Amino acid sequence: MVTAFKAFLNSPVGPKTTHFWGPVFNWGFILAGMADMNKPPELISGRMTAVMCVYSGLFMRFAWVVNPRNYFLMATHVSNESVQLYQLARYARAHGYLEKKEPEAQQ
Q: Domain of life here (predicted)?
């Protein structure tokens, strides 16, 4: 158990590196997005939410190709992408970009 903890502590993506602390602090974006889920969609900034989607998409790729592969960073950006896409869908629905399809009347 102690050996495993020491290995994690000294690993290239462990808590002594920015490869660990960057994803930890990025969880602030995810928590903020989750907190905003109950707010009215009219308060959502469509541009900023779209930028956050692009940002997380780019960093998902970075987390995959960086050596050593950073699964913690990958999980962080997958989570952020999910939250931001949900918020973007709320924004689009509220502003009429996504119309609800009504069932066609059968004759």
A: Eukaryota
Nearest by Cα to 32 from 66, 71, 79, 100 = 79
Domain count, the chain: 1
Write the pLDDT tens digit of every residue in 39-57. 999 999 999 999 999 999 9
The CA distance from 71 to 60, in Å, is 9
Confidence class of residue 5 from pLDDT cuts 50, 70 and 90? confident
pLDDT range class, residue 11, cuts 50, 70, 90:
confident
Exposure letters 52-72 (e unless 16+ CB within 10 A, then b): bbebbbebbeebeeeeeebeb
The counts of H helices and E strands in the chain are: 4, 0
38 lies in which domain range? 11-94
Whether residue 100 lies inside any domain: the answer is no
pTM: 0.80
The answer to the question of residue 106 being in a domain is: no
